[in-house]
Specification:
Glyco_hydro_1_AS; beta-glucosidase; alpha/beta; about 475 residues; 3-stranded mixed beta sheet; globular; GH; glycosidase; single chain; EC 3.2.1.21
Length: about 475
């Protein structure tokens, strides 16, 4: 049975600046925390860096032509903060802004809507040297940066996202240390989470002041689907604890203007939350025009046995001796059953449906977008140079069917962005994991659409999901 999506449903694909652009030292760009992290021995698999990535900075016109061939209605990209504002302070580098002006013009010329993310994890290194996201000034600097980009592109870009996955920035960057800047602390992730929330609120204010009234302002979260191992009280409490740290630490202030009382109690041995100042929560609870949801896999948790050495080892976020769950380090994570991707993540589209329905309830009246969804598989060209990836097609088929069911169940879902358009630098995994619908031969930078790209192009053109 063919499933039809609503008229006007937005079909897109997504990327992030550090993962695709390259040109790391060109036209005034200075290092971000990911440049520093990737150049630190032992931090990224095989010593890979984003210095060249897939050279999107020089090949963007070719890439936009490819997007048009794939019938994309939108392209979600992020701006490199240190390309625009190298120190994170002061005037912009016009050469950096010119790249994004040219990219946006090329997209519009091809009939593709630009969807701009201001921050996808690449903090200017100079701001990290001053303390990074655990410091309040970083949020203030973000607002200035948001105003600069809005002033340059606000006449042509109508869909703006402040932050992508602030949970990863805060808890993987400052807790487990598996993401840049690689710090392993307990208090810093909570301070960082608050200042990322504040950055969203201050940034949204700056965008409102600079953009036309028609502009949409959103944030993209990676809310976790947390399921208990059993219905025992201790396992249900483990679920509650992780839900507070993974989800409600952001949606509490964003949607309700308050941090959850249970989160504050769970972390009382770490902080009294005095870094939250009067007026902050009102700023954070800035009206949203849309909410982006990124989804890949669910989590399964329980109370940790006393003899469990590393309870968080199956949380799906990379190996570390340090937990990204401050105050709840004794929660155990378990491998969920079922087929897995190359990331080791279980394929479970029911989690996407659950999230869409949850945020339909928690954010009534706010349109939802799936701003990331996809899978890494071990894709290789065949003897003729074609790349067939039937497992990715099956993955997308199942997750789009779950999204369609959520719409039927009342979710106001307006669009879907495939992660990712092309194979690229996959953070601490380097170039070892391929999420793209388009294969990239890294030595030559040749782009080869996989069979999933052609499949997705048909779905985007027709708005219809063929029967599995």
């Amino acid at each position: 049975m063919t499933l039809s999506f609503p008229p006007g449903f937005l079909w897109g694909a997504a990327s992030a600046a550090y993962q695709v652009e390259g040109a790391a030292q060109e036209d005034g760009r200075t290092p971000s925390i990911w440049d520093t992290f990737s150049h630190t021995p032992g931090k990224v698999l095989a010593g890979d860096t984003g210095d060249v990535a897939i050279d999107h900075y020089h090949r963007f016109r070719e890439d936009v032509r490819l997007m048009a061939e794939l019938n994309l209605g939108a392209y979600r990209f992020s701006v490199s903060w240190s390309r625009v504002q190298p120190t994170g302070r002061g005037p912009a580098v016009q050469r950096g802004l010119d790249f994004y002006r040219s990219l946006v013009d090329e997209l519009l010329g091809a009939g593709i809507q630009p969807v701009l993310t201001l921050y996808h994890w690449d903090l200017p290194q100079e701001l990290e040297n001053a303390g990074g996201w655990p410091e309040r000034e970083t949020a203030e600097r973000f607002a200035e940066y948001a105003g600069i980009v809005a002033g340059a592109l606000g006449d042509r870009v109508e869909f703006w996202t402040t932050l992508n996955e602030p949970w990863c920035s805060a808890f993987l960057g400052y807790g487990s240390g598996v993401h840049a800047p690689g710090r392993t602390e307990r208090l810093a992730p909570l301070r960082a989470a608050h200042h990322l929330n504040l950055a969203h609120g201050l940034g949204a204010q700056a965008l409102r002041a600079a953009l036309p009234a028609r502009a949409q302002i959103a944030i993209s979260l990676n809310p976790a689907v947390i399921r208990p191992l059993s219905d025992k009280p201790e396992d249900l409490d483990a679920q509650r604890r992780i839900d507070a740290l993974a989800n409600r630490v952001f949606t509490g202030p964003l949607l309700r203007g308050a941090y959850p009382s249970d989160l504050i109690k769970d972390t009382a041995s770490i902080t009294d939350w005095s870094f939250v100042r009067d007026g902050d929560l009102a700023v954070i609870k800035h009206p949203l025009d849309a909410l982006g949801i990124n989804y890949y896999t669910p989590s399964l948790v329980s109370a940790a046995p006393d003899d469990e050495d590393s309870p968080a080892r199956h949380d799906g976020h990379g190996a570390s001796a340090h937990s990204p769950w401050p105050g709840s380090e004794r929660v155990a994570f378990h491998q969920t059953p079922g087929e897995r991707t190359e990331m080791g993540w279980t394929i479970d589209p029911s989690g996407l449906h659950d999230l869409l329905m949850r945020y339909s309830r928690e954010a009534p009246g706010v349109p939802l977008y799936i701003t990331e969804n996809g899978a890494a598989f071990d894709d290789k060209p065949d003897a003729e140079g074609a790349v067939h990836d039937p497992r990715r097609i099956d993955y997308l088929q199942a997750h789009l069917a779950a999204a369609h069911q959520a719409i039927a169940d009342g979710a106001d879902l307006r669009g879907y962005f495939l992660w990712s358009l092309m194979d690229n630098f996959e953070w601490a995994y380097g170039y070892s994991k391929r999420f793209g619908a388009v294969y990239v031969d890294y030595p030559t930078q040749a782009r080869v659409p996989k069979s999933s790209a052609r499949w997705y192009a048909r779905v985007a053109r027709t708005g219809e999901l063929p029967a599995a």
